[in-house]
């Protein structure tokens, strides 16, 4: 069985990026000297699953940051070739969240890091998220790409832990009630 | 000078009530044995300012909970009579946030408790909020009345403190950067 885990930052008003994808408001408040637990989080994962929006955002970064294999769920990209520099690191697939989880389970993938707002929302709607580490950035940006979206039912959460950093980030870990 | 202070609870996805005003999801997760600091907060305030939506919600409660005078900012209610049971406790006025703050300052009101999503948003847009105590409830409700809204500019916040409760509530206090 494969389980999906979220580690994501959001403004206090719930946005993971501006409408145009900009995350400068986040980066400028990230103190590199603070240890926010990303390395510990990622060390326990086998694969990263993201959507097209998130993939195209990380493509703009100066270098490819991921040591883990990345699966990009996108109807639009599924028929296209992975850029040469990313072959063997990235795979495109047109799969629903449930199909992706079934395929990954067959491949022996145990724990995935789920990244990007749209994908987190669709996996949450399908009841496919196990836990979430939400880091809240002390700023209101007033609009953008929301972390959460519409749901067919309430999703009950269990707070596992919460900690505040000198930079003003508040990081809370929630188990999603099964 | 009058300062405005927010003390409010929100679902993790940023809603203070469902679309119909329902807050059952909040009340069922509120452990009355936990001390969330409301009494300390309110003890330092002179007056409560709320909008019509919030006023009409508290009217449905079993009793009037407020010892402090309440100012309801509402164009619609401003021409109407305050219910007999609330005379001397509640006043209706058709004032903008800035007008209300100026009038209250003239009356010697020093610190107000600002309640309700719409009013918090309009005071934030005008730069009239000093600090906010935000209590995050461990649930996603998928939609409803949002705590925050559109802004003309980013609002920078300074985290003062954050604490987690056994019930799973996370309460963070932010100073709004002037």
Structure at a glance:
The first copy, chain A, is α/β, with parallel strands linked by helices and 178 residues long. Chain A has helices at 24-27, 38-43, 52-59, 75-78, 97-106, 117-125, and strands at 3-11, 15-17, 47-51, 70-73, 90-93, 111-115, 129-137, 139-140, 145-146, 155-164, 170-176.
Provide structural commentary.
The structure is a homodimer of 178-residue chains. With 178 residues, chain A is α/β, with parallel strands linked by helices. The first copy, chain A, has one domain: Dihydrofolate Reductase, subunit A (3-Layer(aba) Sandwich). The first copy, chain A, has six helices and eleven strands. The first copy, chain A, has helices at 24-27, 38-43, 52-59, 75-78, 97-106, 117-125, and strands at residues 3-11, 15-17, 47-51, 70-73, 90-93, 111-115, 129-137, 139-140, 145-146, 155-164, 170-176. An eight-stranded mixed β-sheet of chain A has the order 5-4-3-6-1-7-11-10. In chain A, strand 3 (47-51), helix 3 and strand 4 form a beta-alpha-beta unit. The longest helix of chain A is centred in the middle third of the chain and has 10 residues, at 97-106. The radius of gyration of chain A is 16 Å and the shape is globular. The model of chain A has no long low-confidence stretch (mean pLDDT 95). The A-B interface holds A 12-14, 25, 124, 134, 136, 138-143, 147-159, 161-164, 168-170, 172, 174 and B 12-14, 25, 124, 134, 136, 138-143, 147-159, 161-164, 168-170, 172, 174. Strand 8 of chain A pairs antiparallel with strand 10 of chain B, so a sheet runs across the interface.
